[in-house]
Specification:
Rossmann fold, alpha+beta, globular, eleven-stranded mixed beta sheet, 4 domains
Length: 667
C-alpha cells in the first residue's frame, strides 16, 4: 500500500473526518492547522506516516505541518476528478483559494482617526490609514467569542439615561471592531436581520478622507470574514446590499457568489458629481461616474414593489369579425382563426373595461412576453403565406379571460412588425368593479442620483465631503426590502446614514463602527434625528428641534424615538488606543513598560528581547514603532470575552454583568 492509500486508511479511523465513506478534506486541513491532539496521535500510530511527516529533534518528534498540508492539498488526495476540479475554482488571495482560507483580518485605524469634513483642498488630506493584521487559524483561539459590552446609554429627546433593561426591539449603536461585534451579535440575532446595507472601504490607492488602502488579497479576506458572519445573521427572507466602485466590484461579486450563491439583483448608481467634487478632474483621462450595489438574498427574499394606479386609458380598441367562418389552422399547439383584410375591422373607441389594448410585437416583447414569443415563433413567418393585413385569432392564450388573443401581421411590404390585442386582466377587472385597481412597478437596476450625491454633505447635521451617501438612496433600498419593524444592520455606519433613515422609517436598526468621527459621528446624527425637549430645559412631549434634512419631509418625520449606545469592553485595545495617540518615542517606551505588566502579549514576543534591542527600536520611525508595539499585543485579548465576565481582573461592574446577561438572554 503506497503512502497515499495508507494515509486515507488511517484518517478514516477518525469519524470526524468522514462522511458517506468520503474523507472531509476541509475538516482534515482545519484540524491539522490547529494541531489537533487526536489527529496527531492518529498520524503517529502508523510507522510509514510517522516517518514521512515527523522529524526527530533531540528525542522529540516535530510535526511537519506544512508538508502535511501540501500533501493533503495535492489533487491525488481528492476522491475524484470532479472534486479536484471544483477545488480549483474560485478567488485566490496570495495564490491560496479564498474559500479554503481560515485566516482572519483584523483592522483598526492606525492613527487618531477623527475624520474632518471641512477640508477644501486635496493637499490638506490627513494620513488616516487602516492598520491591518492577518491572523492564521492556529493563532485564533478566543478571538471570535462573544464579547462584553460596556458604557451603556439610552438616548432619547430628554438626553442620556442609564440603561436598566434591553428590549428585543431596541435600536443599537455599538462602538468597536466590527468583526468581533458581528460574532457577538451572532449569538443574539442569528437569522433575525431582514436587511444589511454596507458601504465598506473601497480599497482605493488614494482617498482624501477615508484612506482605506488594503493589499488586494487582504481586502478580499477582510470582506470574506465579515460577509460570512453577515450571512448567518440574515433571516431566510433577508437580503444584503453592498455598495462599491470599480476598484474591487468585480472581485466582490465573485466573492459574494461564493458566499451567497447567484446574485439576486444589481443596481448601478450614476454619480455625476463624484464624491462631492464640483467639477470633474482634468488630470484624469477617464472619469469614474458609476458605482455598483451588489444585492444577494439568503433564501426566499422577494422585493417589495411600489404600487401605482392601474388605468384603462389604453383599452380603446374593438375588433369586429365580419367573416363568421374564418380559415382554421394549427400553429404550434394552438388553434388559430385567420381573417383576411375584408374579414374584420379594428375600431378605436372610448376607453372601456370591455375593450382591448394594442401592443407592438417588437424588441424585448418578442422574448420576454408569451404573446410576443408566439408572434416571433409563428405569426412573423406567415407573411409569405397569408399576405399583408391579416388578423390571427389565437385560442388558449392570455390572462384576460377571453380565451383567445388577436394578432395582426405586417401591413405593408418590407415591414416585419405586427401587433397583438389584449383585454384587461381578470384580476384588474375585479378590482376596477370594486373601485380602483393597482399594479406593481418594476424595479430598475439604474438610478441617476447625481444631484442627491452632490447635495448630501450636510444631511443629518453631520458633515463629510467624501464618501457620504444620500438618505434618498437608503430610503429606496429600505422601501424595496423592508417593512416597519424589520431589523436593519449596517456594520460600516460611518456618519450613520443607514441608521438615521431606518429610524425615520420606523425600522429597528443595529449600527457598528470603529472609527471615531468626532462631532460628525453616527450617535450625534441620531441625536439630531430624535431631537430634543424644548430649549428651556423643561421636559415636554413636544419635540421642538429635530432633523428636517434628507428624507424627513417625504416621510413626515416629526422627531422622537430612542436608541442604546454601547461599546465592547476593551482589554488590549486600551493599549492600542494609547499607542495610536502617543506623540513621541519616549511616550511609547513608557507604554511598553506598562504593557509588560498589564497587557496580554503575543506568544511570539519575548519582552526581554525587546528590551535588549531598545536602541534599534528608537531608530525606527514613529509610525513603525507604533506598528511594532501593536503587533506585540495578543489579538485574542483585544476585548473582554463574555464567558469571562465575572473574572475580577476585568473589573466588570455588577450592573454591566446584569445588562450583558440580559443582552445575551441569560436572564
Amino acid at each position: 500500500m503506497n503512502l497515499l492509500e495508507e494515509l486515507k486508511s488511517v484518517l478514516k479511523k477518525d469519524e470526524r473526518l468522514v462522511s458517506d465513506d468520503r474523507l472531509l478534506k476541509n475538516r482534515i486541513v482545519e484540524l491539522g492547522l490547529k494541531l489537533d491532539k487526536d489527529l496527531i496521535k492518529l498520524l503517529l500510530s502508523n510507522k510509514k506516516i510517522k516517518e514521512h511527516f515527523f522529524t526527530e529533534v533531540d528525542s522529540t518528534l516535530v510535526f511537519d505541518k506544512e508538508k502535511f498540508m501540501k500533501f493533503i492539498d495535492n489533487k491525488e488526495f481528492l476522491p475524484d476528478s470532479y472534486t479536484a476540479f471544483k477545488n480549483k475554482i474560485g478567488l485566490t488571495a496570495d495564490k491560496r483559494y479564498l474559500a479554503k482560507s481560515k485566516e482572519v483580518v483584523l483592522s483598526w485605524p492606525y492613527k487618531d482617526c477623527v475624520l474632518e469634513g471641512g477640508q477644501e483642498k486635496e493637499d490638506e488630506k490627513r494620513k488616516e490609514i487602516f492598520h491591518n493584521e492577518i491572523l492564521a487559524p492556529d493563532e485564533i483561539d478566543r478571538l471570535l467569542e462573544p464579547k462584553v459590552f460596556t458604557n451603556f446609554k439610552r438616548i432619547d429627546a430628554k438626553g442620556e439615561h442609564e440603561v436598566s433593561e434591553i428590549r428585543p426591539t431596541d435600536n443599537l449603536i455599538i462602538k468597536g471592531n466590527n468583526l468581533l461585534v458581528l460574532h457577538s451579535l451572532k449569538k443574539k440575532f442569528p437569522g433575525k436581520v431582514k436587511l444589511i446595507y454596507l458601504d465598506p472601504p473601497y480599497n482605493r490607492e488614494v482617498d482624501t478622507f477615508y484612506n482605506d488602502s488594503f493589499k488586494h488579497s487582504t481586502w478580499l479576506t477582510f470582506m470574506k470574514n465579515r460577509l460570512g458572519v453577515a450571512k448567518d445573521l440574515l433571516s431566510n427572507d433577508g437580503v444584503i446590499f453592498v455598495q462599491i466602485d470599480d476598484n474591487e466590484q468585480a472581485y466582490l461579486k465573485v466573492l459574494m457568489d461564493e458566499i451567497f450563491g447567484k446574485e439576486k439583483y444589481e443596481i448601478t448608481l450614476y454619480v455625476q458629481v463624484r464624491y462631492g467634487q464640483k467639477t470633474l478632474s482634468e488630470r484624469s483621462d477617464y472619469q469614474k461616474l458609476i458605482e455598483q450595489i451588489h444585492v444577494y438574498n439568503k433564501g426566499s427574499f422577494e422585493p417589495i414593489k411600489e404600487k401605482e394606479e392601474y388605468t384603462i386609458d389604453k383599452f380603446e380598441w374593438k375588433i369586429i369579425e365580419k367573416n363568421k367562418k374564418p380559415k382554421r389552422l394549427k400553429l404550434g399547439n394552438r388553434d388559430v382563426d385567420v381573417f383576411f383584410p375584408d374579414d374584420y375591422e379594428i375600431k378605436r373607441m372610448e376607453p372601456s373595461i370591455h375593450n382591448l389594448k394594442e401592443t407592438w410585437a417588437s424588441g424585448s416583447v418578442l422574448t420576454g412576453n408569451a404573446s410576443g414569443k408566439f408572434f416571433n415563433d409563428h405569426i412573423s413567418k406567415r407573411k409569405a403565406i397569408d399576405g399583408l393585413n391579416v388578423l390571427y385569432k389565437v385560442y388558449g392564450i392570455g390572462e384576460d379571460g377571453l380565451g383567445y388573443r388577436y394578432f395582426t401581421g405586417p401591413k405593408r411590404e418590407g415591414a416585419t412588425k405586427g401587433k397583438f390585442y389584449s383585454g384587461v386582466p381578470l384580476e384588474r377587472k375585479e378590482q376596477l368593479k370594486e373601485g380602483k385597481a393597482f399594479k406593481f412597478k418594476s424595479i430598475f437596476n439604474y438610478y441617476n442620483l447625481a444631484d442627491s450625491f452632490g447635495n448630501c454633505r450636510l444631511e443629518g447635521g453631520v458633515e463629510l465631503r467624501s464618501g457620504k451617501k444620500p438618505e434618498v438612496l437608503i430610503k429606496k433600498i429600505l422601501d424595496m426590502a423592508t417593512r416597519k419593524g424589520d431589523l436593519v444592520l449596517d456594520f460600516f455606519i460611518g456618519t450613520g446614514v443607514t441608521c438615521a433613515v431606518a429610524h425615520k422609517m420606523g425600522r429597528q436598526y443595529i449600527g457598528v463602527e470603529q472609527l471615531d468621527y468626532g462631532e460628525n459621528s453616527a450617535p450625534i446624527r441620531l441625536k439630531n434625528v430624535i431631537g430634543k425637549a424644548n430649549s428651556k430645559g423643561k421636559l415636554s412631549e413636544t419635540i421642538e428641534d429635530y432633523d428636517t434634512t434628507g428624507i424627513s419631509k417625504s416621510v413626515d418625520w416629526q422627531g422622537g424615538g430612542d436608541f442604546i449606545y454601547c461599546e465592547i469592553k476593551e482589554l488590549n485595545e486600551e493599549f492600542i488606543q494609547k499607542i495610536k495617540k502617543a506623540e513621541d518615542t519616549k511616550e511609547l517606551l513608557k507604554i511598553w513598560e506598562e504593557m509588560k505588566t498589564h497587557a496580554f502579549l503575543s506568544y511570539k514576543i519575548y519582552p526581554k528581547d525587546v528590551d535588549e534591542n531598545a536602541e534599534e527600536f528608537k531608530d525606527l520611525s514613529l509610525e513603525d514603532q507604533k506598528k511594532f508595539l501593536i503587533e506585540c499585543l495578543d489579538k485574542n485579548a483585544l476585548y473582554v470575552n463574555y464567558s469571562e465576565i465575572e473574572d475580577r481582573q476585568y473589573k466588570v461592574s455588577k450592573e454591566e454583568i446584569e445588562l450583558n446577561n440580559k443582552f445575551y438572554g441569560k436572564l
